[in-house]
Amino acid sequence: MLFIVIFLFGWATSSPLAKRQVTPNLLLVSAREGSARAESRQDNTAQIDLPAGEALDLFYRYGFFSLSVRVVPRDDAGKWIVREPTSSIFKADSIKHITTTQANQFQDQFQIYFCDDLEDLMKHYFHDFKADGVEEPFRMYTGSWRTPTTMKYFGLSESVIKSDVGYVLVKLVKPRLTMKVEGRLQLNTEAANAMNKIRVGDRDSVQDFVQNHGSHYIRSISVGDAIYQVLAMDRPNYMRAKNDVLVNKRVTNFDAIYEDYLAPWIVKENGRVLSASGDKTVAEFLERKAVKLTQFAPTQASSRLGSNPCS
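Predicted structure:
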């Protein structure tokens, strides 16, 4: 099967001018206990062209990077990962690319994030994305989001987006490969000459360099896929779940967490189960396997994310 789309679920950038942190809101619980992990049908990584080590202007589309980087479900199928123009600014003999191939299958742990409000939800969705000099990297992607965009990417209704609720983000990820750059990086002749023309306090000289050679370079980039769902909960039920599951750790089994705290009859709204890659094959699988028909309406149940996953 040809590789159609991929989900960029983690990257790090570092300015050419100059460990992932564990968030306290993250809970890891076992998924599909007692069952073997599904083997991937997409093991060929030769088709993936990653721009690790290349530079881009991070600020030109600040707030709009969800349009320029494949990080959320998109309607346009394609192989592109970073749509922004990138440029090679380092000498070839000063940079080394390290590629680490990963399992390309769904991990055996759910990631569960407790998010106190909508901004917290955005922050935790993008918690793997780092950029030197940017205190809140999630704003690079969500700064332009309005209510319809937020509804689309989190699978929620307008009424719940605008209400006083807490959110639970449930994610199951499938890492495919990571590429990072190492070495004693040296600017090539063109970039070095442009760097020498920068004058302290001269905005135009800095802007000229950034527009032609970028503000940051991509130090590490990881690709794969993820299935995720956002649950919206009334404040009392949310605080009960957060305190019992995350803070006091009274229950750690996913089935128990789901039945006692995250079941459809407890939460205010079950968001759509989504594939971060937007892969149509995965989306069709989710429509068949992640939706449970009830007497009144279809219910998208989190507990279904880990059963018989599509790879």
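Summary: The radius of gyration is 21 Å.
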